[in-house]
Write a structure and sequence with these properties.
24% of the residues lie in helices and 32% in strands. With 355 residues, it is an alpha+beta fold.
Length: 355
């Protein structure tokens, strides 16, 4: 039976960044990433991949700042599919919370972009926002793990069916019958918090899963089209230049969904809700919401990501509330810091580092 220092359960963007952070901090560590499908294929494949530096709490603002610096570095080191984008934040209320919520906030600007079809209601305020980008999250996840293949065993099609403590280790049983012993385990399952292998362990955290919807607008963005963040509505209009259309994300309030039961297609109510929100700013664009993407994510009671030790040597990392990509580097850093990861054992047949 193979033994590893660290097993990461979940091959999405958070799991990939945990593996990256772990081997960067402890180069001799033996690590296995266990993914039931293909890496980056779950919630990460549906992500809008938008990064705008903000946080409603001091902790999240700190996490945002850390993640921003890491994504800048990794984008250059790994040639990640990340594209910078100009941005505007619009507040339809008094806007008093905007200066304390957003990092890298610029000066006030006109709360409208008539050339691109949207304008805020009367009395709204707007600010420029620096440091924004968007990414192909599935491709980012794959590229991060591809760079680690000489240090990390990546097992795809390897669903974890049981997880048990055993003499200071964790025995992991996979669906194909293979077993693995790990000194430390990180659970990064995304919205699959109710999986039988760990549902009881996660129950005390009070996590819930909410549906996430983003519609696609059949309108080609201009090369300099900015991201528009509608603060009070917790919504944004993002130009996806590589795909040739806009993406409009709004807050869907449907809770306690199961990712394996969720229909991948839009419901009529999804389009109706998106059009109602977008119609406050861009009535002419609202009718162009004709398609989109649907999935879900886990949320914590405090609406902050959770890094929690469930039992000695077993840490949960996630509940990012739709911000898994944006905060993944900071979640990974907190997770690795929570574990005693000094390398002790290696895989019985470890991958060899290339000279």
């Amino acid at each position: 039976m193979d033994t590893v220092d660290l097993a990461v359960v979940g091959g999405g963007v958070i799991g990939a960044l945990v593996a990256h952070e772990a081997v960067a901090a402890f180069p001799g560590l033996s690590v296995a990433v266990l993914e039931r499908g293909l890496v980056g294929q779950g919630a990460s494949s549906r992500s809008a991949g938008v990064h705008f530096p903000r946080g409603a709490t001091e902790r999240v603002r700190s996490m945002t700042e850390h993640s921003h610096r890491v994504w800048e570095r990794l984008a250059a080191e790994l040639d990640l599919p990340i594209r910078e984008v100009a941005a505007t934040v619009v507040a339809t209320g008094a806007g008093d919370a905007v200066p304390t919520t957003y990092l890298r906030l610029g000066g006030e600007t006109a709360p409208a972009d008539p050339a691109r079809g949207w304008a805020a209601p009367a009395g709204a305020r707007a600010w420029t926002l620096d440091g924004c980008h968007y990414a192909d999250v599935q491709a980012v996840t794959g590229r991060v793990l591809a760079r680690l293949r000489d240090q990390v065993a990546v097992l795809e099609g390897a669903e974890v069916t049981a997880l048990a403590a055993e003499d200071g280790h964790h025995r992991i049983t996979l669906g194909q019958g293979q077993e693995l012993l790990a000194r430390r385990v990180v659970l990064a399952p995304g919205p699959w918090i109710a999986h039988p292998a760990w549902a009881d362990l996660l129950a005390p955290l009070g996590l819930r899963v909410k549906k996430v919807v983003a519609t696609h607008l059949e309108s080609a963005p201009a090369p300099d089209a900015p991201l528009a963040v509608f603060h009070d509505e917790d919504a944004f209009l993002l130009p996806l230049h590589e795909r040739g259309h806009y993406l409009f994300s709004y807050t869907c309030d449907r809770w306690d969904v199961a990712p394996d039961d969720l229909e991948p297609g839009l419901e009529r109510s999804d389009l109706d809700d998106a059009r109602a929100v977008l119609g406050r700013f861009a009535p002419g664009l609202a009718a162009r919401c004709t398609s989109g993407r649907v999935f879900c994510d886990a949320y914590s009671p405090r609406r902050e990501p959770v890094v929690a030790e469930l039992r000695p040597g077993l840490v949960f990392a996630g509940a990012a509330g739709g911000s898994g990509y944006r905060l993944a580097p900071a979640i990974a850093a907190e997770t690795v810091a929570a574990l005693d990861l000094a390398p002790v054992r290696t895989l019985s047949q470890p991958p060899q580092r290339q000279s």
